[in-house]
Amino acid sequence: MNIFIFIAGVGVVMLVAYDFFYTTLSSSGAGLLTHHMNHRIWYFFLFLSKTFQTKRPLRLAGVFILLSTLALWVLLFWAGLYLMLLSEERSVVSSTKEETAGLLDKIYFSGYVLSTMGNGDFKSGSKFWQVLTAVFSFTGFIFITTAISYFVSVSTAIINKRTLSLCISNLGNSPQQILLNTWNGHDFSRLMPYVAQLQQLLNKHTQSHMAYPVLHFFHTGHKKDAVAVNLTNLDEALSIWWLAVQQEDDIARKDLMPLRDAISFHLNMLKHTFIKPVPQEEPLPALAALTKAGIAIADDPEEIRTKFQQLKSRRSLLSGLLQNDGWSWQDIYNGKSSG
Questions:
Q1: In this structure, what is the dihedral angle of CA atoms 245, 247, 249, 255, given to the nearest 10 degrees?
Q2: Of 97, 98, 246, 278, which alpha carbon lies 20 to 30 A from 34's?
Q3: Cα-flanking dihedrals φ and ψ of residue 280, to 5°?
Q4: Are 158 and 268 in contact (CB under 8 A)?
Q5: Nearest by Cα to 205 from 119, 270, 272
Q6: Are the C-beta atoms of residues 110 and 85 closer than 8 Å to each other?
Q7: How far apart are CA 177 and CA 186, in angstroms?
Q8: Beta-strand (E) ranges in 5-100?
Q9: 266 near 275, Cβ under 8 Å?
Q10: CA nearest 328: which of 232, 202, 239?
Q11: How far is it, in rounded angstroms, from Cα 137 to Cα 259?
């Protein structure tokens, strides 16, 4: 036996096994291999989207990344077992004549062992290889069932993600529209019945995001389904309410703090895994429509500008969230700002 080839095979198997089980079972993010591969594929799709000025590539990215992750795990498991079988000439023999299997035969044998198909044209060449084959056959069964469970969980998380986005977009398709739709002529009490539901959906989405990071790469070209856009709309609506509207309700502010904190937690989670703050001059919201609806706005535009400057770090994170998902502040304010 060539011990160096055998150890190399064991190393590959251990590396992919750790990456696989950490990604699918830890609920703490993706393994190192999966993390780096997924991000590079996403940035490639993002590059294509920006180059050709279309979001169509991003719509394909999520499924492609998920299938690429599966292919990575399968190929590395397969390669690891193949290297181990390659370390000894008679690790695999034919079932009838017990002739030594060739290189291609060992690739075939290692593949059907992992797939648990149980073909009988080749067999292990010794007791040691019989035991090892049995171990890998059982590992293949665990791999298949765990991968299926993981994909089902990701599909459920995608549905929850879109539910959150639709719940926000139903309130309005811009920060101003959210405020206008929840204004009853005196205050924004119409928003209160939705706060608990939004907080619950957002917390669930955040936890799903931590457990299944591939969720980040499932993009939709419709603003109504886009969490990045609608979460920014909601956060900006709260900022306008607190920083630009004159008639503030301290009780309402306290009621909304858990939702604001849930958004903050989500942004900070993304900051450590997916997005980077983008230091740029974020636009100020246009407030004419709010004034026309009878909402009292601070008279001094410079005062509003100064207050929004205090949210520089938060809005930089929102910029990163939008850009990393193929959107921009133009999709929030249509390029309009107030001075």
A1: -20
A2: 278
A3: -145, 175
A4: no
A5: 270
A6: yes
A7: 16
A8: 92-94
A9: no
A10: 232
A11: 48
pLDDT tens sequence across 121-165? 889 999 999 999 999 999 999 999 999 999 999 999 999 999 999
Listed in sequence order, the residues at least 6 apart from 22 whose beta carbon sits closer than 8 Å to its beta carbon are 28, 29, 30, 31
Say if residues 25 and 107 touch (Cβ distance below 8 Å).
no
Residue 104 burial (CB < 10 Å; 0-12/13-18/19+)? exposed
Of 69, 66, 110, 71, nearest to 92 by C-alpha is 110
Domains in the chain, please, with CATH?
A: 3-148 (1.10.287), 161-333 (no CATH)
Q: How many CB atoms lie within 10 A of CB 232?
A: 28
* Whether pTM exceeds 0.70: yes
Where does residue 208 rank: exposed (0-12), middle (13-18), buried (19+ CB within 10 A)? buried
Q: Which two tokens mark 148?
A: 């299926």
Task: Give start and end residues of each alpha helix (H) in 244-328.
Answer: 250-271, 288-292, 301-309, 312-324
CB-based contact 173:224 (threshold 8 Å)? yes
% of the chain beyond a pLDDT of 70 = 96
Q: Which of 22, 37, 43 is nearest to 211 (CA)?
A: 22
- Structure token digits, residue 162: 């879109």
CA distances from 228 to 71, 185, 224, 287 (A): 29, 30, 10, 22
Closest CA to 153 of 26, 18, 264, 61: 26
Q: Distance (Å, rounded) from C-alpha 43 to C-alpha 49? A: 10
DSSP code of residue 101: P
Highest mean pLDDT among 6-10, 275-279, 291-295: 6-10
Map tokens 């942004």 to a residue.
267
Separation between Cα atoms, residue 296 and residue 200, nearest integer Å: 31
User: Which pLDDT value is given to residue 249?
Assistant: 58
Tell me the residue type at 33: L
Q: Got the DSSP string for 137-186? A: HHHHHHHHHHHHHHHHHHHHHHHHHHHHHHHHHTT-SSHHHHHHHH--SS
Residues in CB range of 62: below 8 A, 6 or more apart = 158, 214, 217, 218, 219
